[in-house]
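Sequence in, structure out. Go.
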Amino acid sequence: MSMRARFLWVFIIALAIAALSATLALSMPVLGQLSWDVFGTSLIAAGCLLGAMLDAIVIERGRLRPLMLLSIIGWAVACLLGWTLVWYPFDAIGAYEAQELIGKITLSVSLVAGAMTAVGLLRLLRPRTELVRVVRVATETCCGAFVVVSLLVLWEVFLTWWLFPGELESRVMSGLFICSVAGLLGTPALRAAEIARRKDAAESGLPMRVGVELTCPRCGLAQTVRSGAEAACSGCGLSIRVEVEEPQCPACGYSLARLDAAACPECGERLPGGGEDAGM
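Output:
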């Protein structure tokens, strides 16, 4: 069983336990607090397992293995710290400062692990156009900046009040968060549109086999021969093979068959003499 499959099964079990414990807490008040603690434990486990499962997908695709392993470790640490917050009796012994400190550490580790997971997922994409590359890099930058600013504010680092006076810190964090989410959703959408355009270009190009009308150079018989395959003259038996070369954009490889344009419709590359029909 693969790493991704293991994480997936444990994730499903954690969700099932969370649902069951919440149901018991609502239906059996006598078990209320215990059930809610189990619910919180299962929910924390499910969230961390989801992040680890996404990391495992990136690893299985052969991308950023060291970073993803570090992210998995981060999710494991965040899970253990989260369970500590749920089960350790901080309130009973009055350890409020320790509770606050562990809470900050848990949130910090979760933010860093989440950013690494996001970068790993973005790196699964293989953009072919400059637009998608720029959006991906901008999204990664926004994710990193959001984590850095969040950590500065969370730990009240010296001069944070000077860098982000008044409500500026919340506005900066909100803006970076929105840009990060928009990039995480928009980059795959742009990549999907890129793939769709390439598919349309392939379908609009020349088919794999086309019929070519020619005259046999030996016997002069006019006939139609399929390209890309061995054939023989129906009159004299002369072996004939026709290869058709499909014109493509030199910059991006977009098919220019049946097109007559001054620039490539895919990347905008200027074409000397415009698009030309396929030649033999």
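Check: Helices lie at 3-27, 32-60, 65-87, 90-93, 96-123, 130-154, 160-163, 168-204. The first strand starts at residue 211 and ends at 215.
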